[in-house]
Amino acid sequence: xIILIGESGSGKTTVLNELEKRGIKKVINHTTRKPRxxxxxxGEYKFITKEEFENLxxxxxxxxxxxxxxxxxxxLEGSNENSAVISIVDSVKDIKRxxxxxxxFYITVPEEVRVERMRLRGETExxxxxxxxxxxxxxxxxxxxxxxxIENINLEDTVNEILKYSYKLPRVLAVHDVSCYGKCALxxxxxxxxxxxxEVCPMPTAVFSTNTSMKGFKYExxxxxxxxxxxHWKTLDLKFDAIYSGFLGSKEQIGYIxxxxxxxxxxxxxxxxxxxxxxxxxVTYTKxxxxxxxxxxxxxxxxxxxxxxxxILTNEQYGNNNIEKLAEKIRALGxxxxxxxxIEKNGKLYNxILTNEGYFEREIDLLPFRMHGTGDLFGxxxxxxxxxNKRLIDSVDKAAEFVYNVMEYSKNIEGFQHxxxxxxxxxxxx
Length: 430
Hints:
There is one protein chain. By secondary structure, the protein is of the alpha/beta class. The protein folds into 2 domains: 2-166, 3-Layer(aba) Sandwich (Rossmann fold); 171-429, Ribokinase (UDP-N-acetylmuramoyl-L-alanine:D-glutamate ligase, 3-Layer(aba) Sandwich). 40% of the residues lie in helices and 22% in strands. The protein has helices at 12-21, 39-42, 50-58, 92-98, 111-120, 125-138, 142-145, 155-166, 185-195, 223-235, 251-263, 287-297, 307-314, 323-333, 374-387, 392-410, 416-419; strands at 2-6, 25-26, 29-31, 45-47, 62-68, 71-76, 83-86, 103-108, 148-151, 171-175, 178-179, 199-202, 206-208, 219-221, 242-245, 268-271, 276-277, 280-281, 302-303, 337-345, 348-355, 358-365. The strands form 5 sheets. The protein has an 8-stranded mixed beta sheet. Helix 1 packs across helix 8, helix 9 (185-195) packs parallel to helix 15 and helix 13 crosses helix 14. 37% of the residues are buried.
């Protein structure tokens, strides 16, 4: 289902009608407000009394219910996924809970255009002023609930853009290892990112019998296959919307990621520079590999080091570090956005974000135990949210919340320390 939200005069009703002409079923909302001149004939709303509306709600027949400017708006249950509906910000989550496959567009236009449109449809100056003020409050969180924001200057362009995004399945090239038992890396990335409506194309760097927390694990290095994979995909003219990398076993693997970015002209580059933890560099990471990782970070749109990795990237000693300054040094390498993850402070856990908008520390409760694979779970949710065009800060919050919920659930599962995060029953709640 296509969900349209937009301030008064943004043109969302006109967009809805145009979508109907293109074969998208228009969902008729019910409202208790009085119709504007000529509006009944257009069939854009079903106008009912407040008593009728309350009865529909009590009988469970409404998909959503909202109040705006003292009047009620609602959508009947039974609306299918090949349809479009106008909603308000507060009701988007209600629709998404009940209909799995939805995509939300926030339709915007400059305020002066909105004012002129409202004048043309006969509204008074007092009414227009009131609507503008109400909208400023009601639409504060519009971008947070939307998948895409579209400026509605040209109707045809707006509708074409909506249809383009509505029927596009974004594809991520995930460059990680495969852990056959003990969920992490690709065995986490594939199901989690897929559950967020994003296709995952894996490029495995190695296959492990178990994750590396278990003694005696066996593995097969797959570096020798990576270039062949890239060359084959080129013959198929494959396209990738993003690349997401995790643990890398050699300098050559880092080079193949850079080659993939260049060959496939990948625009979104999300790098988890898995190099160490708890103040110690992993034994597989040589000084040469650490320097090569910096060249990968330099082209990243988002880089997600933990504190140890942030220190390695900036040549700083691990200890009582100034997190904001570390993030600034990583951005100085070339990364557009930095998320330093898992900072423990005063009994809380913080994910620290540096973007063009500023520096932010996002807090979540700290659980009294650790689990192997939670970093990959965090990264996978983050990637999925980014691919749904969510703000980075909101994506970080959602990823942290999901990891917390999964850890709380997993602790009751037999053998959870070896199994890794038991996220499967919770995927529908991301």
